[in-house]
Amino acid sequence: MESNAVKLMPTRREMIKTTACALGGITVGISNPLRHFAAARPFDFTSRRPALGERRFTSAAVEAKIQQVKSSIADKELAWMFENCFPNTLDTTVRVGTLDAKPDTFVITGDIDAMWLRDSTAQVWPYLQFAGEDKQLRMLLAGVVNRQARCILIDPYANAFNYAATGSEWEKDRTLMKPELHERKWEIDSLCYPVRLAHGYWQATGDASLFDGQWQAAMALVVKTLREQQQTQNLGAYSFQRVTKNPTDSLPLKGGGNPTRLCGLIHSGFRPSDDACIYPFLIPANLFAVVALKQLADIYATALANQSFASECRAFANEVSQAVNTHARAQHLKYGEVYAYETDGFGNRLFMDDANVPSLLSLPYLGCCAAQDRTYRSTRAFILSADNPYFFRGRAGEGIGGPHVGLGMIWPLGIIMRALTSVDTREIALCLSMLKATHAGTGFMHESFAQDDPQKFTRSWFAWANTLFGELILKVSAEHPQLLKELR
Description:
Largest sheet: 3 strands, antiparallel
Number of helices: 16
Number of strands: 15
Strand order of the largest sheet: 3-4-5
Low-confidence stretches: 1-40
Structural class: alpha+beta
């Protein structure tokens, strides 16, 4: 992989000044960045979806939406990618059934046969909007909520679970492993995503029947665990070590992670990339926890009439929010006040961002702040620049990556999230152009691709990125329909 900066693609400012011409013939009536990424390639736009009889689940409402949106996309390649990607979670990753007479849905990530609490929420999230018109889809979504509650009750510190008590390749990790666990990396967002899904399901359907005794016990454990990790010192209630050549796969100091000072923030062992935190107060995850606690308060106050627990959740959210304002907002040498990615309560801060969500880039998407929030705008300018050590720019495109797969590897998740949080149609067009230019002829998103060669990619079956791409196209279709008509 080349790293010669002289040959890298122009800056974003230079791209915005270029004339309208493009890869694959896409034209947007504005300065078009597509010409920087690759030459036009002929494709056979045959569906890459499984045959109808081999699909895990089919939703009539989702299929109707695919056809509606596909017909509004002028660019054939982009329309083909949308049709392949948006239903990928339903087509290939869900296992639908019942357990204890309740809907039960197990959702694998794709090429890893395990269910992450984070990924499973993100994978089904865009389908919530169709739950009101498709009863079977509603049951599938209810099954994910139920399964996640069961998982949390098995172990609130685990990030990934098996379908049953079958053990895992990580069963020798030095932590409290159980046969039901695939992996036991403590990540704050693992407990926030199930809250997000339950709240979203309730908002979309009005159905509060899922909030039964099992679900409430799981939510009580969510709050208890977040409290434990807010107050932890040294090992606290959790530790993790792995025998590995990769230092980001294990925690230092006997598995407790680097030291922190009690300050109201919640301690996290790992990032949503499953990489170890450097400073264990992971700020995007703490801000996500604020949102999740407020969503819990909403459910308990309105659907369950439990004002006591609702008040507890609100008070907890306020504590964490105040701690973020005190310890995570900092003056950057070039960008003014920004959010740090991690801090430790001792005054040390790490300035970067990682493509995995929650990220600093994703804060408006998760409801943590407004897209026009001043501190967020400054943070966004920083993380989408070469001053972010994990922002990469090459001949194939530009975007945020992370330590997980190495330097020079751009994550489509980051490009998609950039578009989802953008208020600028030119920037959205730039992101769509890069996504189109870097699927390497597969018609699907990947975990990452090399900044200079999209044919070098990781994970050919990564359902979260596929579904999120579909979510982006739906958002553009709803908010900027003319853009999809002009892309060709």
